[in-house]
Write a structure and sequence with these properties.
Chains A, B, C, D, E, F, G, H: InterPro entries: YtoQ_family_protein. The structure is a homooctamer. With about 150 residues, chain A is an alpha/beta fold. Chain A has a domain of about 100 residues: Rossmann fold (3-Layer(aba) Sandwich), CATH 3.40.50. In chain A, about 50% of the residues lie in helices and about 15% in strands. Chain A has a 5-stranded parallel β-sheet, sandwiched between helices. In chain A, α1 packs parallel to α6 and α2 crosses α3. The longest helix of chain A is centred in the middle third of the chain and has 22 residues. Chain A starts with a strand and ends with a helix. The model of chain A has no long low-confidence stretch (mean pLDDT about 95).
């Protein structure tokens, strides 16, 4: 049995690589999917495909249509969603992905430092599990496969 | 025909009162529901009902269970959800409410200043309508009732 | 027992008035909802609320967000959808409303002249009932209330 | 990971072949499904299987049952739907397929020339993404697979 | 609290009147809905509204569209469905209504004489409750309102 | 705005009366629904309506059909479910009602003494809120109506 | 691409073998599932597994639980359902299977001789396609795979 | 065709091994999934991954989040759920799993000794099939594969 995991969160560092690496070391039958991690490409994909837009707002709309299309298709394939929050960035798209997973009843693991417990209290309440580090998320996923 | 509107957003100022006031002036058959707006009561309701908790994190969990219960019940009654974002506060609970509405296919009006278009691009793409002020949201709601 | 009926179709003539008038004469407990029928207002509502847009395409996008918001909210209230097709206009929005009703399993009555049977064959197959005139649609609705 | 794509649109030229060809060149793991492209066979399949019908309307009904059966089964298998609109033909069946996909929450890419933006404004608003050429649609699909 | 009850079954005798009468005597807050009980009108409604059809099969199709439209709309309003089976008539439409209710998770009370237990065994297994007479069905409905 | 509350739990004492009484004192717009509270009647209703059954197991099956019919219809009307657990009785039907509410995404308040936290840990995790007394449940419900 | 087909209908003759044979000859990638075809085994399976039951009615209930379990699991796997009706037998279980498929929005092909058009008129209206012979059903299924 | 079976029930003895063993002997294409069977590990997994918790109640909450995450993910993969009840232990989590399966319309086989028929009467009524031993459950599953 295999599981597909959607990794939602900021695309400014390589936290996903750490998770994939750990999964590999633990030999877990997991497939990881997620957003475009090249931040510049993610912001520019709208104009790249649809051409120059009138202003920054429309540029963002164009990019978002394409990025959301990607998220929708990939999250539909996921058996579980992992959403990572950190101190930096507004991360409203991460909150959107996490909440969407919860509303669609896809099991959700939320990773957040203890310091962010207050602004994330409502979202935490909706998650299946709240942990503080990607390693803990991996341990929980690993537990699913233990006989 | 009447509509019930869930007003999601921060509870640090009285933006909801402005909306309700405008609706009244326009004679719109709207019922408004939303979260507890007394910020202190909202944070303390967990310990008020369940008793003192071991630490701040558990205090938040207790309050969130009760606040989410309220949101779930009231949002279920809503025909449309309005979510307001501003420059202050993390607003991850607002993003959660907005995304939940979208995922549950409840029509969603997102209010955000133009300056926040970038971090809200993905959520904006999921909303039925994006406006910049509560007045514009009210105009859109009013339009629904015009013959 | 009352029924709410969503009237989907072009907004260039007063076919809806005829239907409402017939329902009144027949004393049927029906509430009718539908799109904005003032064609100019429907096209301009985007710029009216959101301000001038960069070009005609964005002007249409703005208006459509608001018109779709209205359709979504009102069609959700409907017990049955009536979609009228005629020889004039592309009517892709009507086809969209009709198909959406069918996909959402809302009973659908399709009104179309016999001459349009060929291009409407697939949509007709999805409708609960296909008639040629609004009067026939009203007869079918009236039949629901007969003991 | 593979994706199944339903190609909705007129069956009077070979636009689907161009898409499949491009997908092949780009080495994308896509499976394409769609309607019967032999226009004559599509119109005659009802009488071919069920025998001669009383008149043209019933002939169309018979064919539509079978064509809709095919669409329903194949669209159910799709992860994403692409709907192409052009200047010719009424294309109400295309609008039906596109709207059905949107209502069923299947991601939808709408391809239409800029000249058709007005009659397609409502449907465009419901699509995940709107582009002007099949090539742009392929670029968007390709983007989903990029790491 | 009121309940709406859909009475599915043959329309060749007045068994529904007995049920409504008993409900009235017991003062139960029930609203009853059901199919057209005038058998001739039910069979002819297609041609009455749509005009003469090519043959008996098409005459039946026309009537069924309209009768199913009525059933769909009224059964959607029901809180519970009662389906009565008897020794006479094929009653495949009753089996369809009963099975549809069960598949849609609407509570279903099946009334059948003991002699029909064998051919109705699968449908009985899907019903919430199986009784032998309309009086027993009424007793069960009455029980719902007892404090 | 009113709410309907389903009170699930053992029917051996009058805990429901305490809740209704408190709601009345607090002037809350709540309607309470629940199972038959006369324990003997609840056990015997099967044979009362359907006649004597072959043995105790079939007697229970007959009664359960009718009691579940009542639960299904009434729980469908509920906006929120309250499930009470205590030290006595197996209460598997209560666990069933609670779990059913959670699975159907109806907000659920679970009332249990602290001593039962261990065997109820999984069910507690699925509830919207866990409290120890009916009074606390009422306080949470009351909080929903506070402006 | 493969399709799973559920064959619903009486189990008194080998009509399913003819369908499977034709599918094989036509090289169609179809997997067929269906009920237990050994009529005696189907009727006795309840007592075979659960032991002797008090009377014929309970014997049927026991068997139906097991046969419905099989139908539920296998029909869930189906992409399309084929339901065959003939002049003999009450076939209420077939009507149940067909109606359940339609209500669950699984495409449904109904096979019935012309002579049964009247009692099957409502069910026919709900089917995706109505044919008169298994061969016609196979032609329709084959059409799905044609490029 | 293969089936995935979720085995819900107490984790204090090896009843699952007996079932898997029997399935193997009967050569059935079944995949079994279930909870963590090491009772101590199941109770401690919360603190193992998340660290020491303030008290026993929070220790249980932490473990339950992780155990429920496992159940949710694995039960989503199941085609059928088997729930075993016995004389020992409160088994409210088993009742929760069984009821959740029934509410989600996953076929459910309930195994319980005759002596427990009374407290399990409501849950039994919701199950697809009730048997007294794991062997009978296996016979029913085996029957699904018989031609």
């Amino acid at each position: 049995m295999e599981l597909t995991v959607y990794l939602a969160g900021q695309i400014h560092d390589d936290w996903r690589e750490q998770i994939k690496s750990q999964a590999k070391d633990m030999n877990l039958p997991l497939t990881f999917v997620g957003p475009m991690e090249d931040h510049e490409r993610s912001d520019n994909i709208g104009e790249e495909i649809l051409g120059k837009q009138p202003n920054a707002i429309f540029k963002d709309e164009a990019a978002s249509s394409i990025n959301n299309l990607r998220t929708d298709i990939l999250m539909n394939k996921a058996d579980v969603v992992v959403a990572l929050f950190g101190e930096k960035y507004k991360q409203w798209n991460t909150a959107m992905d996490a909440a969407r997973a919860a509303a669609l009843h896809k099991p959700l693991i939320l990773i957040r430092p203890e310091a962010l417990h207050h602004p994330l209290k409502e979202l935490s309440s909706k998650a299946s599990l709240v942990v503080e580090t990607p390693q803990q998320a991996m341990q929980a996923l690993s537990y699913i496969f233990e006989s």
